[in-house]
């Protein structure tokens, strides 16, 4: 089921399915004359990086095998049913080694459970990502099973997915910073610093003393 869910994400993001069998899929995407390949491999027992490389190499479609640049533009998504999220500590080291392995392909490990798969059925990933209620529940404890947790992991491991956002809720960082300054009553203070910085001769000690005095008066 997870393989089907991931496959649909590739297809809806301009990837073409090249070949598939029960446990491994190959996709390609052509944009601006650049080809990108992606292999998705499912494992119930997490192998090491060498074994993953061998599986992908031995199952490559002819088009990829004949492309001399394929090792540079091929990513591999490893799907690993971990059984329980409580077991992640036992696999973190191995996952790190796989993803840091420099040979052949860039590898991404997506671990999940059967409960994660059940949560994804008939769910919109994009709508869930911008759901504040789901996000706040996820923030309380990211280690427990939740729809937001598995979707966040999927987006992290698939670099071509774009994180949705509501433009009406987007506040530029500069405006947020100015709002916080204003809320703390620091506009006048920053104005004094800016004016002082334009003087030819600046006594830093006097400026610091003035800032401290200003802050003390507003406590």
What portion of residues belong to β-strands?
15-25%
Please tally the β strands and state the result: 5
From the N-terminal CA to the C-terminal CA, the straight-line distance is 59 Å
Q: How can the largest sheet be summarized? A: 5 strands, mixed
- SS-based structural class? alpha/beta
- The DSSP helix count reads 11
- Strand sequence of the main sheet, in spatial order? 1-2-3-4-5
Domain unit count: 2
* pLDDT < 50 runs, ≥5 residues: none
Order of helices and strands: HEEEHHEHEHHHHHHH
Helix residue percentage: 40-55%
Shape: elongated
Radius of gyration: 25 Å
Overall average residue pLDDT: 81
Structure explained in plain terms:
The mean pLDDT is 81. The protein has eleven helices and five strands, in the order αβββααβαβααααααα. It starts with a helix and ends with a helix. The chain folds into two domains: 2-157; 173-217, no CATH class. With 219 residues, the protein is an alpha/beta fold. Strands 1-2-3-4-5 form a five-stranded mixed β-sheet, with helices on both faces. α4 (88-100) links the parallel β4 and β5 (106-112). InterPro entries: ABC-3C_MC1. Pfam families: MComp1.
């Amino acid at each position: 089921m997870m393989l089907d869910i991931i496959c649909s994400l590739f297809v809806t993001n301009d990837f073409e399915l090249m070949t598939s069998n029960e446990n491994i899929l190959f996709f390609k995407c052509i944009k601006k004359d650049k080809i990108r390949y992606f292999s998705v491999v499912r494992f119930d027992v997490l192998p090491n990086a060498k074994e993953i490389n061998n599986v992908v190499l031995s199952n490559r479609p002819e088009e990829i095998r004949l492309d001399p640049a394929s090792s540079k533009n091929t990513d591999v998504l490893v799907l690993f049913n971990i059984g329980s999220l409580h077991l992640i500590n036992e696999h973190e080291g191995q996952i790190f080694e796989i993803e840091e392995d420099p040979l052949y392909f860039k590898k991404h490990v997506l671990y999940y459970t059967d409960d994660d798969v059940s949560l994804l059925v008939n769910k919109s990933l994009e709508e869930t990502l911008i759901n504040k209620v789901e996000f706040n529940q996820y923030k309380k404890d990211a280690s427990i099973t939740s729809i937001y947790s598995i979707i966040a992991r999927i987006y992290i491991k698939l670099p071509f997915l774009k994180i949705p956002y509501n433009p009406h809720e987007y506040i530029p960082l500069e405006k947020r910073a100015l709002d916080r300054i204003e809320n703390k009553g620091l506009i006048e203070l920053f104005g004094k610093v800016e004016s002082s910085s334009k003087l030819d001769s600046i006594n830093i000690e006097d400026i610091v003393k003035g800032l401290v005095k200003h802050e003390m008066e507003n406590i």
